[in-house]
Specification:
Blueprint (H helix, E strand, L loop, with lengths): L2 E4 L8 H9 L5 E3 L14 H13 L7 E3 L12 H20 L4 E4 L9 H17 L5 E5 L12 H11 L5 E5 H6 L7 H14 L5 E5 L2 E2 L10 E2 L7 H10 L7 E4 L7 H12 L1
Parallel strand pairs: 1-10, 2-3, 4-5, 5-6, 6-7, 7-10
Antiparallel strand pairs: 8-9
Helix pairs in contact: 1-2, 3-4, 4-5, 8-9
Length: 278
């Protein structure tokens, strides 16, 4: 089974995310667990956690269908030791919030070295992840591939593989964003490129460590390193790719989330993905 949904708002309360996913007839969704533009937030109370779980059950969505995202402010690759320490603390707090809600995953961008060398940046990020794993028990950190803009790490399967090797803990997985992959120079749109990517993925990482996908079309050119989302079928990737992903039996069992820029189209996008998968 695939869990299709969108990245929905938590405005009005965490439980609202489940309600909004239900309105889209989604089987999964993504969310922030707090205002992602702020470093700190009040702890999630027992009452809030139980309310969220109740609404999730009413929506008929399993915890494994939800892919929370951490704050964009967090940069685990920051070369400044004190700033990286603070980022790690914020990352741990995000994992704990997800755990409180009874969810399984926390999706995050690996980070930027801000001019530092790639290998040093990967080592710094891995050290932060290891620290976070040591301070939590169950939630799986899910590393998202990037478009390779600026000094952001994680633009290739080779870099993701190296991160996983440095973390050296099975409780760590990856998420593939289709827009980011194309912008980084991976031609998922062609049948040959699609097959080559997943063959390399299986070799370097393995499908057992794939715990999420962001299904986004792109306005950006192949290899442009520009993260510019477009509605499904209205960009350079085209609907054929997303139907291929929806029908691919190797990609079952985790959230597949649209983050496309026109929310009024989410319901139709999700419906078409579900129909293809079925």
């Amino acid at each position: 089974m695939k869990y299709f949904g969108a990245h929905v708002s938590i405005a009005g309360g965490l439980f609202q995310a489940a309600d909004r996913a239900r309105e889209l007839s989604a089987t999964g969704f993504a969310m922030f667990t707090k205002n992602q533009r702020q470093w700190r937030a009040p702890a999630i109370t027992d009452a809030e956690a139980e309310e969220f779980k109740a609404h999730l059950a009413t929506a008929g969505i399993q915890p494994e269908g939800v892919l929370p995202h951490d704050s964009y402010l967090i940069n685990l690759g920051n070369p400044d030791p004190e700033k990286r320490k603070n980022a790690t603390g914020a990352f741990v707090a995000e994992l704990q919030r997800v755990e409180k809600l009874g969810l399984n995953y926390l999706n995050f961008h690996p980070g930027s070295g801000l001019g530092a060398g790639l290998q040093d940046t990967l080592k710094a990020i891995a050290e932060c992840i290891r620290q976070a794993l040591s301070e939590t028990t169950a939630v799986i950190p899910v590393i998202e591939n990037t478009a390779g803009q600026g000094n952001c790490a994680g633009k290739s399967l080779e870099e993701l593989q190296r991160l996983l090797e440095l973390v050296h803990d099975d409780r760590c997985a990856v998420c593939i964003d289709t827009c980011h992959a194309y912008a980084a120079g991976i031609d998922l749109a062609s049948p040959e490129g699609y097959d080559a990517f997943w063959k390399e993925f299986e070799s370097r990482i393995g499908f057992g460590r794939l715990r999420g996908m962001h299904l986004n079309d792109t306005k950006s050119a192949l290899g442009s390193h520009l993260d510019r989302h477009a509605p499904l079928g209205e960009g350079n990737l085209g609907w054929t790719l997303f139907e291929r992903l929806a029908a691919d039996p190797r990609l079952d069992g985790f959230p597949m989330v649209v983050e496309t820029p026109e929310p009024e189209k989410w319901s139709a996008e999700i419906a078409r993905l579900k129909e293809t998968a079925e």
